Target: protein-tyrosine-phosphatase
Amino acid sequence: MKADLHSHLLPNLDDGAKSLQDSVSLISELAELGFTKLITTPHVMSDYFKNTPEKILPALDIVREELSRLNMPMQIEAAAEYYMDEVFVSKLETETLLTLPGNYLLFELSFVNYPSNLYDVIDQILQKGYRPVLAHPERYPYFAGEMENYSQLKDAGCYLQINTISLTGYYGKASQTIAEKLIDHTMVSFIGSDMHHQRHSAALKQSLKLPYVQKLLTDYQLLNPLLVV
Model:
């Protein structure tokens, strides 16, 4: 796998790392698990986390400088996890967004309300030349675990990224079952840690022992290795 494409490791930008010390600690634990490249993705949410490249990239530089000072050879970059709302749609039209390597654009949805304009926005993302990647589809209850709903997303040109720790039951049995079904139906393109804090780190370590994770890492065509450039 080598590359993790979804985490919240930059200090004091969102509900992830709260300090530079937190950042270094979480990055160190990911390094121990064998990751060589991290693409951290701070939340961009108009109501809560009003992050911009002008906030994210300087925070990335601070973390890189600290890793260099500590002689920690971890490659770290920054993209963003965009919350799909009206502000995001506006940003698509007027701004250059922070993407993963290969122009993959990570976005998330409300955990409560199904966005009626979902497919219009996916089409807009594609028209702007981005490759849409939906974060943790297993966690949206309104998809109800019906594989047809996820197939429609894939058919629309949207890649699916599940959280590895979903397979431990961290977010509940329903999310675990859906994540397993997505793997069984070969619908997963990326896996990510979605690392925010030490509890996520402990769950990630636990997940590596699971048969479904072993299946992903051996018999599966994940796209994570393509991010290591």
Remarks:
- The chain has one domain: 3-227.
- Residues 168 and 207 are 6 Å apart (CA to CA).
